[in-house]
Amino acid sequence: MASVRRPAPQRSSKGRSQAAGRGSTPAGAAVKRARNAGKVTRTPASARGANRAPARAAGSGGKRSAGPDVQRRLEQLERHVTRLEDIHAVRTLHFKYGYYIDMCLYDEACDLFAEDAEVLFLNGIYRGKAGARRLYCDWFRDLFTRGHNGPVHGFLLDHLQLQDIVDVSPDGRTAQGRFRALLLAGQHESKKERIANNFPAQCWEGGIYENRYVKQGAVWRIQRLNYNMLWQADYEPGWAKSGVHLPALTKLYPQDPHGPDELLPSVPATWPATRVVPFHYAHPVTGRMWK
Questions:
Q1: In CATH, what class is 73-263?
Q2: Tell me: the pLDDT tens digits for 2-61?
């Protein structure tokens, strides 16, 4: 059976004229304007891309030039960060030195020195890496470990490195550092080969480092290790009844195979005498150097 199309209903001319007339009246125009105000006009995607293109082109054409104040602050920040990195490197260099000599790793300790380094120990000055090796590898290693590079059974030689103050020069090539050393040393009763030179079974030692460091390439090295031994004490009687057991140096190398290259004009005072090791830095408030 053939389908019969129904004709679409036709609005009357009166209805059409009413619908058309809604926007022409003042109230109808207001309604139309309110409806249009709520609509968002969308820009075609092609137009949006065209609008953004100049910004992208400007951003990809090169870096924006920073103002002079921003550039200056960036340079200051870079110098400040470099200074902090150098202070950290010098501090940890000295701490690593302490860990090496704790374990009698004297080869490793000597590798931390610059070629033109010097070491001040007791009342002697050991010059260059050859002088440093004479002190650490010849004297200390022969005395403490019988020529072995490294720890041995029953021997304690712990150096606590404390109260570090590190100052880097304005050019960033040299630095100075002050550290306190507290040494705990001794030999266990089970150790058959006893250490000579009147070395006690248990003892303390305290001293101050006033060191100088040099940056060679990108690597910091020890240029001048100045250890001021201030006191020693046997453990049982303590410092109230003990004095220093290390005697002053009297002979130079090569007369003394372990001797220094130079002797200081006088032997530094040790416990029970007291002294101030000169500070490399000025007073932080007054700006005056201590004398």
A1: alpha beta
A2: 444 444 545 444 444 444 444 444 445 544 554 554 444 454 544 444 444 444 444 445
Beta strands in the chain (DSSP E): 113-121, 124-127, 155-168, 174-187, 202-216, 219-234, 262-263
**Strand-pair partners of 224:** 118, 212
The DSSP line for 161-202 is: EEEEEEEE-TTSSEEEEEEEEEEEEEE-TT-SS---TT--SE
Q: Return the bridge partners of 219, or none.
A: 216
For 254, the token pair is 């090569």
The full set of domain ranges for the chain reads 73-263
Q: Which residues contact 116 (CB under 8 A, 6 or more apart)?
A: 128, 223
Length reported for the chain: 291
Strand pairing class (174-187; 113-121): unpaired
